[in-house]
Please model this.
Amino acid sequence: FEGDRLNKLVLDDLGFFVVKGLIKSERCKELASLYANLYTSKSLVRSPRHSTEVKVDSNQEFEDVFRDESFTTLWNKLFNGNVGLSFVRLLSKSADSPSAVILHQDISYQYGDNEQYSLFLALSECHNLNGGLSLYPGTHKLGYLGDAGELESSVLPNDLTAVCPELNVGDVLLMNSNTWHFSQAYSQGHE
Model:
């Protein structure tokens, strides 16, 4: 489920794929520094309705990263490059907001067709101990369940195990927005 180039067949089969090192670490460090400065100065604040969301009101620097050549190459593999960006938000797990995130689908928060993707760019290392994203492979094939609330994992087959990819700085996780996913609480590691 990972490689240095998008494997669309794997993405279509599992519902997610990690493109390793898509964005240069220097660029990610710039964005992480910008985030830290804005968060420290209270220019960015946590959403009262989502424990890991940090609201971004149209900060061009965060949006511009998706116009980098690395991303435009990726976009060309999806919908023949006819890709739109609906919104950008930052998700941050840290000691000051360590909560787990419920099992859910992203599609219920988006507009338009059912074939949509959510994308996560790692600005720091992400793994199970620091609240990295966990996904249930193949659950996107169940389609949109029509609920923006918590999904019930007990309806899934007993042998279906969630996967928590270990992401390094600059890795990108691309996920079909119907894929069931959650995250554990932050306990240790990079914030």
Summary: The first strand starts at residue 2 and ends at 3. Strands lie at 2-3, 16-19, 53-54, 90-91, 101-104, 117-121, 133-135, 172-176, 181-183.
